[in-house]
Design a protein that fits this description.
single chain, alpha+beta, 13-stranded antiparallel β-sheet, about 15% helix, globular
Length: about 240
């Protein structure tokens, strides 16, 4: 559980807004406006989040509670209460458990970086950068909703397909390729479903997420607290071994 659960939580839970360009960026712009606007959403580049969920990656559901410190695009720390702490800080990573502090293996760090890059795309505001190719791709059903589909690609990044509810403009689904630690690094399709949108400090964000791998339930979680924050380097620094 320690190795690969974090991909579900490193990802952004929100969408933000920018001025429209092509049709894809126009859809993104509406999503950002629906989330509260660029200025308010930009404050959530750094976030503290608490959540309760269930992890299904090893078969039977394992309940957990966590505290997440996230400074986009590449700093992330998650403490699973009573189990372990996992941290990614740029090109480095570490974990801490009752067995001590260890450096994150290369294969695990690679999976975390895929998740971080996809999460940065789902944050939406970075898509102003023309390094990202942003294309509208028709419509699709997400549950009972009709959604506008946008595909985002960039060199050395996963291609992420985003689905926006046509009624509310909120990001309600995302999909991209990653790797599964439980399956020895096998490539899988990660699918996120976002719901229960609530407004906090003028920003509207989903508070329930379901993550599936190749269509199978992997993680289901509820955000219990969320706030913008500022961190210093100590927040993500590797602790000394006991």
């Amino acid at each position: 559980m320690r190795k690969f659960l974090a991909i579900s939580l490193v990802l952004s839970w929100t969408g933000i807004a920018l001025s429209g360009g092509d049709d894809g960026r126009a859809i993104i712009s509406k999503a950002i406006k629906a989330g509260g606007g660029e200025a308010k959403l930009a404050k959530y580049d750094s976030t503290i989040m608490k959540e309760k969920g269930t992890y299904y990656g090893m078969g039977d559901g394992l309940p957990y509670t966590s505290v997440v410190h996230m400074q986009r695009p590449d700093k992330f720390k998650m403490e699973i209460k009573g189990v372990f702490t996992l941290c990614v800080d740029g090109d480095k990573g570490w974990t801490k458990s009752d067995k001590g502090v260890t450096d994150m293996p290369k294969d695990q760090l690679e999976i975390q970086h895929i998740g971080q890059k996809a999460g940065w795309i789902m944050h939406l505001l970075p898509l102003k950068d023309k390094a990202y190719t942003v294309k509208a791709d028709g419509t699709a059903k997400v549950g009972d909703m009709m959604a506008s589909v946008v595909k985002v690609s960039r060199k050395d990044h996963p291609t992420v397909t985003l689905y926006f509810d046509k009624k509310t403009d909120h990001l309600v689904k995302s999909q991209f390729k990653t790797k599964s630690g439980e399956q020895g690094g096998k490539e899988v399709t990660a699918e996120f479903l976002f719901s229960e949108f609530k407004t906090v400090d003028g920003v509207t964000m989903p508070h329930h997420v379901v993550l599936k791998h190749d269509g199978k339930l992997y993680v289901e979680a509820d955000v219990t607290e969320m706030s913008a924050a500022k961190f210093d380097a100590k927040t993500f620094a590797k602790p000394a071994s006991d």
